[in-house]
Every structure is written in C-alpha cells, then in structure tokens.
Design brief:
Helix content is 52%, strand content 12%. By secondary structure, it is of the alpha+beta class. Strand 9 and strand 10 form a beta hairpin. The N terminus is likely disordered.
Length: 414
C-alpha cells in the first residue's frame, strides 16, 4: 500500500510539471533547437537568422516560466509535505523522497537552473552579431536589384522608341535608310544604350555572388545552432566555441567582385549641333537610361567584407561556489520549528542528501533555494534524540557535481 502511494504521488508530481510546461506551449522536454536548412538567397538567410533567434528566445521563455511557476527543487519539498503523513516515519519515506528527487533532477537538468538559458543567450548574441554583419550585404543587394530593374525598363523604352523611328534591328540600335533621325542623335542613343548594357553586365557578375554569400551566412547560423545544441547536451557552457563559429564565416569569397569596365563615365561626349528635327521622346529615353545607369554603377561598390572578428559572445559567468547560511551544527528537539537556510551558488538546482546514516525521524527538502530541516510529524519522543547526522546539499545541474564546502551537522536532542 505504501509503495502504491509512492508511485501515485510521483505520478501526480510529474503530471503537475507537465501541466505547467504545457501551459507555456511546450510539447517536449527536449532543449535541442532544430537546425535549419541551408539557404541560397540573402533574403532567405536573413529570415533564417530571425527564425533561429525566435527559437532560442522561445526556449528561454519556456525555462524562465517553468522556474517561476514551480521553483527549481520544489518537487522534493512538495514530496516531503505530502508523504510525511502517509509513511509515518518508515523507511519508505526515504524511498518516496528519493523518487521525487530523481524527478527533480531530471526535470531540473533540462528546464531548471541557469545553464540552458545562459547557453541560449550566448547563441542569440552570436546570431545577432551575424545579423548585424549580414544587414548591409542584404541592403546592398536589394538596392542593386531595384536599380537593375529600373535600368532594364529604361533600356527597353529606348529600344522601343528606336524601333518606332526605324533605327533598330533585332532589339538593338541599328542605323539604316529607314532611320528618321539625324545621325548625331542616333549616335548619342547608341552610346547611351552601350553604357547601359555594360552596366548590366557588371551587375550580373555582382548578383551572381549572392548565392555564395547567402550560403556562408546560412552555414554560420546552422553552425551556431548546432553548437548551442552541443553545449546544452553536454551542459558545459563554452561561449568561446560559439564565438568561433560566429567568426568562422569565410571572408575570402566575400571580397569585392571583379570590376568590369563599364566604359568610364556614362555621360556621353559633347555632341555636335543636332539636325533641326531631333526626336524629343528619344532624348528623354536616353536621359532615363543614362540616369539609371549612373545610379546602378554607383551601387556596384565592392561587397562589404564580413569582419567576423567583431562577433563577440559574452563568456558565461563563472559558477559561484555553493554556500549556506546554516550554522555548522543545527540542534533539533522534537518540538523544534522548521529550520530554513538559504543556499547559494552552483547552477541553482539543489538537492539535499544525508551522508552516512539516514534519519527516519527527520526530513530535509529544498523549496527553491531554501533548505528546510524538520522533525517528521508524528514522531514519538521515545524514538527521537541522541543521534547526530551529516547533511549535504548538491547542485543537481549537469556537469561536475558541486556541493557545500562542508556538511551540516544535525544534532537531535532529547
């Protein structure tokens, strides 16, 4: 009957944890973040950065809300209060508390303490660093795309007008007997068209490098998310490793593209006096081509190199040693009130353990960061007093086990 009660209480505690986490929209205890697929455009790479940041922020929120709602370590405290009247000081009380302690360790290691949110924060910092470097690249390419479209439209309008004037063949300027404008005006139109074509050729080379740059940014995002997952899994923060990934984007392929000679200044030379019947609309089309070509040429500056050495991820703060405000010796009588002592340091997921003989008449449990030591309700005076026990508090966060510098001596007095 007592064992059934243990199992029932353990099930209730985990149901409570599941409910709390479920209310925050979490469907799994896994702290792993999904690694995104590689992207080939700067627009997709930019969206990938933002999505990864949102995933890490969601993970942070889930863990902060979990700790706020339950308090890391409260499962053991709940277990002690609930199981005390059930087991009446029997050995099964220790078994029951141990069961709750295992649950607290499992859930606390994944959701509790400071480690996982700190690793997520390092990942967010690295992603923001990459985003800040990627932003000017994305803006530059978007501007080039817009100006390229404008120049294409101006070139099309110019050729269309030349066709209407009988001065075009196969979509290009061509002077023949059908051409109804002075040769000087045709020469100017042909020069403007040539400048526009050379500018578009240089633009095509600039745009061709977008996929490679986007791939490198996407690889950086994927690498950072993967490193975050490794650190969470190992539960040993290594912010420097994330920083190295953020700084690992190759700058070789991001160097300035080969500059193609666009024929010098798109402004045509001074023209001789035109014939008395130039076409006004053609002049306007030439002006539009020259203006669009000049704007696009100015936008074809070398692609900014990613200065990845500026991506700095804050180092994880050193874990403070564990400490307690409890005296070296705690004296308890059968009618003593609950003794409360503050625990600090470590990763914040604490669990008390008796060293050596475990008392049947005492309870030690954590309520968040408060160690509670009390006499089990219902203990008979004849069964109490005259023994001394040793109590230690361990940090249940993953990694090298940490505990108080010295055990607390608990002395029971008649």
């Amino acid at each position: 009957m007592q064992n059934q009660s243990v199992h029932r209480m353990v099930g209730v505690s985990f149901a409570l944890v599941t409910l709390v986490v479920g209310l925050e929209g979490c469907t799994t205890f896994s702290p792993q973040i999904k690694i995104p697929q590689r992207k080939a455009t700067l627009q997709d790479a930019d969206a990938q950065i933002q999505s990864a940041i949102e995933d890490l922020q969601k993970g942070q929120k889930e863990r902060y809300m979990f700790n706020a709602a339950t308090g890391v370590g409260t499962l053991i405290g709940v277990a002690g209060a609930a199981l005390s009247p059930v087991f009446k000081g029997t050995r099964d009380l220790t078994v029951g508390l141990a069961a709750f302690g295992a649950g607290n360790y499992t859930v606390g290691s994944i959701y509790g303490g400071k480690l996982v949110p700190a690793v997520y924060a390092s990942g967010i910092d690295a992603l923001l660093c990459v985003s800040n470097l990627e932003g000017p690249l994305k803006d530059s390419f978007e501007q080039v795309h817009r100006l390229e479209h404008t120049l294409h439209e101006a070139q099309t309008a110019l050729v269309t007008r030349l066709e209407q004037l009988g001065c075009s063949d196969s979509g290009k300027p061509h002077y023949s007997g059908k051409c109804s404008i002075p040769t000087t005006q045709f020469d100017a139109a042909q020069d403007a068209y040539g400048v526009g074509e050379r500018t578009l050729q240089a633009t095509s080379i600039r745009i061709a490098g977008e996929a490679q740059i986007a791939g490198q940014i996407s690889d950086a995002v994927r690498g950072i998310v993967n490193e975050v997952n490794k650190q969470v899994q190992a539960a040993l923060p290594d912010a420097a490793a994330i920083q190295r990934l953020a700084a690992g984007i190759s700058t070789t392929a991001l160097a300035a593209p080969t500059t193609i000679n666009s024929g010098g200044s798109p402004t045509p030379p001074v023209l001789p006096v035109r014939a008395p019947t130039p076409d006004t609309q053609l002049n306007l089309s030439m002006d539009e081509v020259k203006t669009a070509s000049t704007s696009l040429s100015a936008a074809l500056t070398p692609v900014p190199t990613l200065h990845t050495d500026t991506c700095k991820v804050a180092d994880q703060p050193a874990t403070a040693p564990m400490a307690s405000d409890a005296p070296a010796i705690v004296n308890l009588k059968i009618d003593s009130a609950v003794q409360n002592y503050k625990i600090t340091g470590g990763n914040g997921a604490y669990s008390p353990h008796w060293i050596g003989e475990e008392p049947a008449e005492l309870i030690a449990a954590m309520q968040a960061d408060v160690l509670k030591i009390l006499v089990k309700p219902g203990t008979k005076p004849a069964d109490f007093g005259g023994k001394t026990y040793q109590l230690d508090v361990y940090d249940t966060g993953a990694g090298t086990p940490k505990h108080l510098p010295a055990p607390i001596t608990v002395n029971t007095q008649k």
